[in-house]
Structures are given as C-alpha cells and as structure tokens.
Design a protein that fits this description.
The protein is mainly alpha-helical. It has one domain (7-376). Helix content is 76%, strand content 0%. The protein has helices spanning 7-12, 14-33, 37-43, 51-61, 66-87, 91-123, 135-142, 149-156, 169-184, 188-204, 206-210, 216-237, 239-244, 251-272, 277-296, 302-309, 311-333, 345-376.
Length: 377
C-alpha cells in the first residue's frame, strides 16, 4: 500500500506529542509536588479561602487528565504504526526498527529510576520506611522491591511495578500492539471491527468479560485500551474520508470543537471523580480532531514541537526526575516537608523534568534515531 502521508506530515504531529507529554509531566509534578485536592481542603477549608487559594485550587483541577492524554498517545501510535506498515510488511524489519527505537531509552529509564531510588533512600530513608503516607510517598514505598530479581525481570519485559516507573504502565499496551500489528494490520478493517466489538462487549456486559478470568494485561489490552490504537489505524486507513468531514471548517471552528471536547472531558472526569470510558472516548475524538487540524493547516509550534521530538524519553524519565527534584527541594528547605503548600514549587519541577529528559534524549534516543536513519538507507 502506498503511504497516505509523507515524512514531513508526521513532523507536524510532534507538536501534538509535545502537548500530550508536557501535560502528563505537569499533571504528575502538580500531583506529587503540591498537596492539592482533599489534603488542601483539610488544611484550608473553603470558607477560609482568599482569591489566590481559589486560583490555586481551580488551576490544579486542570491537571487531572493525565490518563486521558495517554489515550492521545495510543491514537497517535495506531496512526503512526499504520503508516509505518503501509510501506513495509516485513515483521522482522518492523520489530528490529521498534526495538532499536524504544528499548535502549527504556533500559536507560529503568537505570535512571534505580539510581534515583538508591540516592534518595540514602539521603532520606524516611521516604521509604512508612513514615509518610501522602500520595508521593506511597510511590516511594513501592520502590523498595525494585531490585528484586522477579521485579527486575518484569520490568525488563514491560511488566513494570509502580513506584518511579508508574507511567510505564502504558508502554505494556504499546508493546502488545507493536507485537501484533504486523499481522493484525494486514486486514485493517477486520482488526478495527473486531476491536470495536470487544470494546462494546465489555462496555455493555462487563460481568461476562470478568467471568472469563483473563490475565490483567490481556484483559485490559483487548477490552479497554486496544480500541484507541484501532481508532488511529482506522483514521490513517480512511484519512481522506475522515479529513473531508472537516473540509469546510475554519481555524476558529476547529478551536471551538477542540475546546468543547476538552470541556466535556473535564466535565466527565470531575463528575465521576476519575478517568473513565467516557473521558477516554472523548480523548480519542479530540486526538482525531487535533491530527486533522495540525495537518490541514500545517501547524507547527516550534517550542512544543521540540518537546514532541523527545516526548518518549520525557515520558519514561520524568516521574523519577520528579523525586530527584523533590530531594533537592528538601535539601534546600532544610527540613522534612511532607506536605508542600507552596504552589510554585511544582512549576520548577516541570522545567527540571524537561531538562533531565532532554539530556537523556541527547545521550540515548537521538543516537537510536540516527541508527534507524542509517538502517532505513
């Protein structure tokens, strides 16, 4: 099959990747480095708020869609892999490219998390002994088993524990999709229809699916997350048709549609108090509109596009980097501060994670991209 889009078109999508990765980093920095939520309300009841308290709490609510923006990555993956396999149907070549592309950076991120665990445990053992029970320190407690052989083996094969590599959960489903894609995408319409049928079956008959007793990863891939890869595959395969749905829309109308979808995502998340199937579906819809918008108008936001270029490394390194930043903060503050009430602290964490991710990108991921370029030649 002749590729529908060209390499330069996919460079435009780096901005979407940058937006998604940056949002996830912001969400995790805010969630880890500022007490927020119910803890904030315990210390500062609503009746005691001033205008700044309302601003802090209100803006913190805008960072609650981390999982929804992972769905954006799933749709982009389906879209991109469909493109990759449109010109090369060899499973071996595809696997080799994927391995070179993702695994060296992944191993580096595992080592990075381990180093930060050892360093911070030596400086602040109270992070790991149960002294603190706030959310941030539940993550540190999960790291105590990080170097056990069984855990190491699971991490090496994309079955991670939580702790500093918590965001790696999505990579498990990415890799499952990669492993099956060369075969599933030979009959794309069959793959998409089957994915939709499994998704709807679980949506309407969840008890029947639960009774099957499937292993967690298989259950979640087949019945919860695979549909979003399928959305990307369908969109790429029928790109002209889907794009024509928006052919008469202006930039202002596109922006209004995207703002409306984002508002619905926030509404469903806040109302149900957690990410859910409705917010995921809306995130997939938002992903499609974003892709059409950026490709239709050839939009590239240089600063965010540069973040998109190393979004993979940023995604897999940022959570561990947050704890290194937290250690620096504790050392500078000079005392134990399990509840950070300074709203500005987490903002600095975002820039710190961007810097750490960029350094590791230059050392590892950029080199793997060069290897891939030579391989393609």
């Amino acid at each position: 099959m002749k590729p529908i889009l060209q390499k330069n078109d996919f460079k435009l999508l780096d901005t979407i990747r940058g937006i998604a990765a940056l949002y996830v980093v912001i969400a995790h920095c805010r969630g880890t480095l500022w007490l927020g939520g119910s803890e904030f309300l315990k210390l500062f009841p609503r009746e005691s708020w001033n205008a700044w308290d309302a601003v802090m709490f209100g803006t913190s609510m805008l960072t609650r869609l981390a999982v929804e923006f992972v769905i954006v990555f799933f749709v982009l993956s389906g879209f991109s892999i469909a493109h990759s396999l449109s010109s090369n149907q060899s499973p071996w070549q595809f696997y080799k490219r994927r391995l070179i592309r993702i695994y060296p950076s992944y191993l580096t991120a595992l080592v990075w998390a381990g180093i930060i665990f050892l360093v911070t445990k030596g400086i602040f053992p109270q992070w790991y002994d149960g002294t603190y029970t706030q959310f941030a320190f539940l993550r540190t407690m999960e790291m105590n088993e990080y170097f056990e052989p069984k855990v190491v083996a699971g991490n090496l094969f994309y079955m991670p524990i939580h702790g500093f590599i918590g965001p790696f959960w999505s990579l498990t489903y990415e890799v499952m999709f990669y492993l099956m894609a060369p075969f599933l995408l030979r009959q794309r319409n069959v793959y998409v229809l089957t994915s939709l049928a499994l998704f709807l079956f679980n949506l309407f008959l969840p008890n029947v699916v639960a009774s099957l007793g499937l292993p967690l990863y298989i259950y979640e891939f087949l019945f919860i997350y695979n549909i979003y890869f399928a959305v990307g595959v369908y969109f790429y395969t029928h790109f002209s048709m889907v794009s024509n749905w928006f052919v008469n829309y202006t930039k202002v109308e596109f922006i209004a549609i995207m703002a409306g979808l984002l508002l619905f995502i926030y509404g469903a998340n806040i109302y149900l108090k957690i990410e859910n199937v409705f917010t995921f579906i809306e995130s997939a819809m938002l992903s499609v509109v974003l892709i059409v918008f950026f490709l239709k108008y050839k939009i590239r936001i240089p600063l965010i596009s540069n973040v998109g270029k190393y979004s993979y490394t940023l995604y897999i390194t940022h959570f561990a980097s947050i704890y290194l930043y937290l250690a620096f903060y504790w050392l500078i503050a000079g005392k134990d501060m399990p509840q950070i009430t300074n709203f500005a602290v987490w903002v600095g964490g975002v820039f710190f994670c961007l810097l750490m991710g960029w350094i590791q990108y230059l050392l590892i991921e950029k080199n793997t991209q060069s290897w891939l370029a030579r391989l393609r030649k």
